Amino acid sequence: MGPSEDESSTSENFEFNNYKSLVSAEVELIQRVLEIRQNFLNSPDSERIVEPILQRISKIRSEKLILEKKFNLI
User: Fold this and answer.
1) Long-range CB contact pairs, 30-33, < 8 A, 24+
2) Cα-only R_g, the chain
3) 53 and 34 Cβ atoms separated by less than 8 Å
4) What pLDDT, in 10s, does the model give residues 25-71?
5) Which one of 29, 49, 67, 69 has the lowest number of neighbouring Cβ atoms within 10 Å?
6) CA max distance for the chain
7) Range in 1-10, 13-22, 44-53 the model is least confident about
8) What is the rounded distance in angstroms from the CA atom of residue 50 to the CA atom of residue 26?
9) Residue with the larger pLDDT of the pair 9 and 70
10) First-to-last CA distance in the chain?
11) Which residue has the higher pLDDT, 73 or 31?
């Protein structure tokens, strides 16, 4: 393997590790939203609390989509 192949492989490994981290973060945040909604059932505070989390989940999904296309996962 030449130097450019090593760099490409390293970059792909970094991106794939980033993808795995995004998946993990998404799952964890979804679980948090479900827990908050359960604990604050029928509370107006529930949506105020989960809104920033839902925004972060949306950003994570956008980032994941880019990597999924790159790795031909979709």
Assistant:
1) 30/57, 33/57
2) 17
3) no
4) 999 999 999 999 999 988 888 889 999 999 999 999 999 999 999 99
5) 69
6) 60
7) 1-10
8) 14
9) 70
10) 29
11) 31
List, as own/partner pairs, every contact residues 60-68 make where C-beta atoms lie below 8 angstroms and the sequence separation is at least 24, other chains included: 60/22, 60/25, 60/26, 60/29, 61/26, 63/22, 64/19, 64/22, 64/23, 64/26, 67/15, 67/16, 67/18, 67/19, 67/22, 68/19
Grouping H, G, I as helix, E, B as strand and the rest as coil, residue 20 is helix
Closest CA to 70 of 23, 26, 19, 21: 19
Cα 27 to Cα 10, 34, 68, distances in angstroms:
26, 11, 16
Residue with tokens 């979804």: 30
